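New to this. Please check this protein:
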Amino acid sequence: MAYYTAVGRHDSAAAAALLDPTMRDESDVDNVVRLDHVRDLRIAPATLPQGLPDHYRHIVQAFVAYNVVYKQEEAASNGANSRFLYVGQDVKTGHWRILSIGTGP
């Protein structure tokens, strides 16, 4: 939820800090006019997709829903949106980071 809250505040540094470094160019901050009403955070164990960075442990799948207005609609429409995220703890630093974001599990 912290990532989407940062995106909603247009705080690109805070949003980027919550992403694995390989994902930092994919932040939505620049294309969001408004993002609010972040809700429905659910955490669940899941089968992990291939290609996740290998220096994470305790990887789980999270689901989050929110309302958004984009400057330019590309891969998603304005209004209610939801995403599945894979989140893990970096074994080197202990920080939790988002490893992957998608629209389906």
About this structure: The two ends are 17 Å apart (CA to CA). Strands lie at 32-44, 56-70, 79-90, 96-102.
